[in-house]
Design goal:
The chain has three helices and three strands. The chain has helices spanning about 10-15, 35-50, 70-85; strands at about 55-60, 85-90, 100. The two termini are about 30 Å apart.
């Protein structure tokens, strides 16, 4: 699998691949995720089953090894969130329905 140069996002990499085809992709922007009310309600209900603390779920599994973060990056990210008081739950599966696990000391 190809590795991205350090500091380069996959989004920029894919957009730049259009240039040789004569397509100007414009500037890359940060992706934004918009959820419908039903999706928000479902997410809140799942979160309430897992913990009462605000936080994030970090999905560390991937269907292909090339898509996985190096474990050092995940640990660094979790440490920075924890230092800010953020609860981090880890999901290391690629199947729906499993409950994430709370990170212990990292």
């Amino acid at each position: 699998a190809r590795r991205l140069p350090a500091g380069r996002s996959a989004l920029v990499q894919h957009l730049e691949a259009l240039r040789p085809l004569g397509v100007d992709p414009g500037e890359a922007t940060c992706p934004r995720l918009f959820l419908r009310a039903a999706e928000l309600d479902h997410g809140r209900a799942l979160w309430a089953r897992w913990t009462s603390q605000p936080g994030v779920v970090l999905h560390v599994a991937a269907t292909q090894p090339a898509k996985e973060w190096p474990i050092e990056h995940a640990v660094d990210f979790v440490r920075r969130l924890a230092a800010d008081g953020v609860t981090v739950l880890a999901d290391d599966t690629c199947t729906a329905g499993d409950s994430p696990k709370k990170f212990g000391a990292v």
